[in-house]
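Hello everyone,

My group is preparing for a crystallization screen and wants a predicted model to guide construct design. The compound we'll soak is zinc ion. Before spending weeks at the bench, it would help to have a computed complex in hand. I've included the protein sequence and the ligand's SMILES below. Output in structure-token form would be ideal because that's what our pipeline reads.
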Amino acid sequence: MMSYQDRVLTCRDCGRSFIFSREDQRRYIQKGYLEPKRCPACRQARRTDWVLGRGSYSPRGRQVFPAICAQCGKDTLLPFEPHRDQPIYCSECYRRRRATSG
Ligand SMILES: [Zn+2]
Ligand SMILES: [Zn+2]
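Reply:
Good plan to model first. Here are the tokens for the complex, ready for your pipeline.
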């Protein structure tokens, strides 16, 4: 029979120490998890980011930048960082503008 003790772990995100309590250890082992790598606050933050889609990475892992189309006002994602003095267009409006101006 294993005995559990409170352990102090270091969060790999913020570097702070946090308690991995006996109850938590038991729960983790029951679920087949390894020990946590992040403190509860960072875990919560990551989960919230994930749920809200606030991460700045696209599903394929490419970095994208959120912007608002100057033409139609729709939210769009750019594969490059937009310049402030340059109007941003969504792909639809961008194509339409090219077609009419060309
Ligand atoms: Zn942390
Ligand atoms: Zn647009």
